[in-house]
Amino acid sequence: MTALTLSTAGAATLRADALVVGVAKSGKTLAVAPGAEVVDQAFDGGLAAVLETLGASGAEGEATKLPSPAGLKAPVVLAVGLGSAPEDGEAYDAEALRRAAGTAARALAGAKKAAFALPIASPEDAAAIAEGALLGAYAYTAYQENGQGGKKPLGEVALLGAKPRDKAYKAAAERALTVAEEMNRARDLINQPPNDLTPAAFAAAVQAAGKEHGLKVQVLDEKALTKGGYGGILGVGAGSENPPRLVRVAYTHAKAEKTLALVGKGITYDSGGISLKPAGHNETMKCDMSGAAAVFATVVAAARLGLAVNVTGWLALAENMPSGSATRPGDVLRMYSGKTVEVLNTDAEGRLVMADALTKASEEHPDAIVDVATLTGAMVLALGNRTFGIMANDDDYRSAIHEIADEVGEQSWPMPLPADLRKGMDSSTADISNMGERMGGGLVAGLFLKEFVGEGITWAHLDIAGPAFHEGAPYGYTPKGGTGSSVRTLVRLAERTADGEL
Ligand code: BES
Ligand code: MN
Ligand code: ZN
Q: Homologous superfamily of 3-163 in CATH?
C-alpha cells in the first residue's frame, strides 16, 4: 500500500524521485499553479515556457516529465494538467486536483517516493490530492509479480504545503488515507477472479476485517438461509456449486443517535443463469458484487474514522449460474418477506437477492436504508459509464445524496420511480414478477426493490452498473477494473448522518 506523509520541507530540498507540479490553461497560455513557485525559480521563471515548448497545454490528463535543473534535489519534475485555471482569487476545483494527483501517481509507477507540490488552499484541497494520489497509485497485483507494465505502484506520496502541525490538515489527510485505502479494498475484492471470490470467500474476508476493526460480523450460510426462508437469495444461488451467504457487518458507536443501514448486491459472478448472458456480456460480470464491496468498505471506513453513527452493512452474496439445480424462468420463489415472485428472467437476479436483504435490514428499523447495486444495463444506457443513478422514496433524501456525491467527486443523477411502471411486473401466478417493461428498466428494478423496504423507512437506491467497473484506459485516479464507485458518497453520507444533518 502506498504511504502518505505530510512534509514541511521545501520543494527544492525534499529528497524524492520526482517532484509533481500543477499546470493549468490560462487563456491561450500555460500557467504554473501555486505551490510550484520554488520549482519555477529553479527554471529561472521559465518552467511554463519550457513546458509549452514540450507541447504541454495544461489540459486535464496531461503529464509531462522533464529533468530537474540544478537547485532541485528531486531528479525529475512531473507537470500535470489541472484544466482551466480558476478565476483570480478562486481555488482549484477539488476534483481537478484529485484527478491530476491520480494522473501523476500513475505516471510515476515504479518510483519509490514523489513529492506533490500541487496548489493547496484548504485542508479539503490537501485531502483531494492525497486521495487522488493514493487511488491513482493503485494496482491489482495479487495474480501478477508486479502491477501493470511490470512496475510497482508509487511507494510514497509526500504532500508539500499541507501543514502537518495544523489539526485540520492532519485530520483531512488521515481521512483521505482511510477513504482511499477502503476504496482500494473494494477495488481488490471487485478485481478478484470469481473462481476465488466465492460468496463464502467474501464472507470470510468480512470476518477477517471485522476482527481487525472491531466490527460485529454475522454470516448466514445456506443452511441458515434455508431455515430463515430467504427464497430470493437461495433462488439465485441455487444453480451454483458455491452456496450463497447473507452477511451482516455492523459498526456501532456508543454515542450514536442514528443507524444507517447499507445493503449491497454481492453477485460474485453473474452468468445470467438459465437466461444465460451471451458472450460479450459476461466477461466483466465478476464486478457484480461491487455494491457489496462498497458497503463493506464503507462500514470499515466508518469504524476507522470513529464516526458517531451506527452503520450496519448487509451483503447479499450469491453466484448466478445455470445448472440442473438452477432456478428456471417460470419458477416462483417465496421471498423472506413472504411475498411470492415469479422469476421470468434469471438474469434479473440482483433484485431478488437485494429484496431479501432489504426486508431483513428493515426489521431493525434503521433511520435510513441505502442500497447499492450493479443492478441494470438500462441504467448504463441511460447515464453512461461514469454516472450512477439515485432513486428514493423520499425526494429530499435523494437530493441530499446527489449533492453529497457531487461534493466528493462522484458523478450521479437523480432518477424517478414512476408508479405507472409497476403494473408491468404484475404476474398471473405470483404477487409480482422479476421482469417488467423493457423501457425504463433501471426504474422498474428500483420499483421492485421499493416493495421490499419496510413501511415508513427512508430508502435510497444507487444503481452503479455504469461506474462500478472501468473497461477503458485508466484516467485520473480511475484504474482499469474495479473503481470503488459510491464508497466516497457513502462515507460522507455516514458522516452527515453522524453530524445530525440528515
Ligand atoms: N448485473 C446485471 C446488470 C449489469 C449490466 C451490471 C452491465 C453491470 C454492467 C444484472 O443482473 C442484469 O443482468 N440485469 C438485466 C435485467 C433484465 C434481465 C431485466 C439487464 O440489465 O439486462
Ligand atoms: Mn443479471
Ligand atoms: Zn447482476
A: Leucine Aminopeptidase, subunit E, domain 1 (3.40.220.10)
